[in-house]
Amino acid sequence: MGDLHGLNTLKHQPQKIAAMEGLWHTETGAPLVLFAWPNAETQSNDFAIEIPKLASLILTHDLNGEVQGLSAFEKTPPVKPVFFAFRLMVGLGFLMLLVAFIGVSFLLRRKAYPKWLLMTLVAMTFAGTIATLAGWYVTEIGRQPWLVTGVLMVKDAVTTIPPAHIGLSLTLYALIYIALLIAYVHTLFRMANNAINDQSVDETTPMVTGLQPIEEISHV
Hints:
By secondary structure, the chain is mainly alpha-helical.
């Protein structure tokens, strides 16, 4: 699905792809930039760590495929926010998969979670939210200065509603979501504490404290 989405973006928003990849100039056999510091003044990447030709392979399915760079477009999005948000999104995605696989490996071997894994799971509570927000940044900032690429520019779609009204609605939305976030965190901690204090659970079971044994779950 990610590959199909990338190909679709390459076709309809190639300038966004160029910003995501930190590709300043059109290249054949373009490298995949794992990390760098994009430099708009020199139109190059400082401290770049790259895998040769991998970007071309991913985007064109050809090691020597051509990928357009930012210099090929008249109007382009700001590179740094798109570049770093994309890597944050992908990095958190892989980290969540890794933590999930580690957790499953302990469950399959019927071993208790070590303290470091429990702490990691707590630290990962908002990883999905952060990854989603980072992806939203890539989508929205990456399309700039277009609202609909090649059809409608952002400046041509600016609302005529007074700024004070927009500020009021934004504030109300923020307050509602903050309240929901507090309720969510409170519920998580309450559920976790109830599981720890549940005396009906056999604490000798080599599982995560507070969870039923796998064979009991299978009978439910």
